[in-house]
Design a protein that fits this description.
Elements: E1 17-20, E2 30-33, H1 39-68, E3 74-78, E4 84-90, H2 105-109, E5 110-114, E6 119-123, H3 131-136, H4 147-154, H5 159-162
Antiparallel strand pairs: 1-2, 3-4, 5-6
Length: about 170
Amino acid sequence: MGAMKKMSNLERPARRRSVVGLGKHGGGGGFSFAYSIDARELKRRINAAERKNLRAAARLIGADAKRSMRKAPAVRRRDEAGRFKKSIAWEASRPGEPPNVRTGNLRGSIGYAMGKHTVWIGARWPKGAAGPLMEHGTKKIITRAFMGPARRRADHAIPRYWRNSL
């Protein structure tokens, strides 16, 4: 008995098709083969690969955005007599740079949510309420984007998640 090929979940038995050849000397050598594709299993695998790859890309972008925020340096102020004040001021990041971290609420609120064929990445409410204000700026708040630059830095790495995903 010859070696039998194990069928994957994607294939299922179908009726056999025979091909008969005459061979080199007119002999009756022939072979038969059978194949079929399970469409439901194929769709399930494609959807699973899509979710896995979107989740990986979201984690990559979120981690990059979190890393871009640095701890704000403390600045101790002196009073008129030259003594340090009890209060400590925090230095703001420069305009155009990601925001500095003071309490960690914004950095801790960065996460993602999965849709059917999409993923949303950003600051979650209520801790990340300042996220959209920092990202896009307002009339009084200068833009300190952190999600947009993180996505642009990840653009070159995302296609590798989709390679050989099935």
